[in-house]
Amino acid sequence: MQTDIDPRSLIGRKAFDREGTKIGTVDEVYLDDATGVPEWAAVRTGLFSRDAFVPLEPSEFVEETLRVPFDRALIKDAPDFGVGRHLSPEQELQLYRHYGLDSLPEETGPDRDFGRLAGQEE
What is the rounded CA–CA span in Å between residue 59 and residue 42? Predict the structure, then answer.
């Protein structure tokens, strides 16, 4: 994803799957603690539904919307870890596997802290 976008600008934007079907609305954006780069978005998938985590790489921010290159069904079946707190390395690994993303970001290490929320200071 384009890295020069303010992650807070994604919050409230509509998200669409690879077929152009609306998934929901971006609820939160999670940053990589080591790099500060936006890594995951939590997308509210419906009025009474939960948030589904979607990877921001290889997603794209196009015409004020988030385009996620996965099917809606796969997104809705993503592991549910709740929102508003850090993702553990194990949870992030589960998400990568769920989406079939074989490689983790280069700076993964045993002491790395994942999933800091955009706009939150330590």
Answer: 13
Q: Which amino acid is at 112?
A: R
How far, in Å, CA of 119 to CA of 95, rounded?
22
Contacts of 103 (CB under 8 A, 6+ apart): none
What gap in Å lies between CA 42 and CA 106, rounded to an integer?
Answer: 22
Amino acid at 49: S
87 pairs with which residues across the strands?
Answer: 114
Q: Using one digit for the tens of pLDDT, what is the confidence trace for 71-107?
A: 999 999 999 888 888 888 889 999 999 999 975 555 4
pLDDT in tens, 7-60: 888 999 999 999 999 999 999 999 887 788 889 999 998 766 789 999 999 999
Cα dihedral sign, 34-28-65-15: positive
Helices then strands, each counted (H, E), the chain: 2, 7
**How far, in Å, CA of 106 to CA of 39, rounded?**
13
